[in-house]
Amino acid sequence: MGTSTRDEREAQTTAFLRVRVGQEEAHYGGNRVDGARILRLFGDLVTEITVRTDGDEGLLAQYSDIRFTAPVRPGDYIEARARLVRQTRLRR
């Protein structure tokens, strides 16, 4: 019982979401959604992974190398995937 397969470990340390952007989320000219809304999705993914691995919520400590390459507008679907690649005693 104490062992888990690679697939089980990977399922525990990855998360995926798909959301549809609503009209109420467009706050900028050109009917655009702010980048902070997109970044919050990554926080949601981190929370899901930490609940799976630790049974409790965790926080995203750092973002790096973020580039927004296209505008997001109401009606768009956003898909995001996250994977835990490293963890230490105090940080994941």
- Order of strands in the sheet with most strands: 1-4
Task: Indicate the radius of gyration in whole angstroms.
Answer: 16 Å
H/E series: HEEEHE
Mean pLDDT: 85
Low-confidence stretches: none
The first-level CATH class is given as Alpha Beta
Secondary structure elements and pairings:
Blueprint: H1 6-12, E1 14-20, E2 26-28, E3 32-33, H2 35-54, E4 77-83
Antiparallel strand pairs: 1-4, 2-3
Textual characterization of the structure:
The chain has one domain (6-83): Hotdog Thioesterase (Thiol Ester Dehydrase, Chain A). It has a two-stranded antiparallel ribbon with strand order 1-4. Strands 2-3 form a two-stranded antiparallel ribbon. It is of the alpha+beta class and 92 residues long. A hairpin with a 3-residue loop joins strand 2 (26-28) and strand 3 (32-33). Helix content is 29%, strand content 21%. The protein has helices at 6-12, 35-54; strands at residues 14-20, 26-28, 32-33, 77-83.
Task: Provide tags for this entry.
2 helices, single chain, 92 residues, two-stranded antiparallel ribbon, 21% strand, Thiol Ester Dehydrase, Chain A, alpha+beta, 4 strands
Question: What's a quick, concise take on this entry?
Answer:
This protein has 92 residues and is an alpha+beta fold. It has helices at residues 6-12, 35-54; strands at residues 14-20, 26-28, 32-33, 77-83. The chain has one domain (6-83): Hotdog Thioesterase (Thiol Ester Dehydrase, Chain A, Roll), CATH 3.10.129.
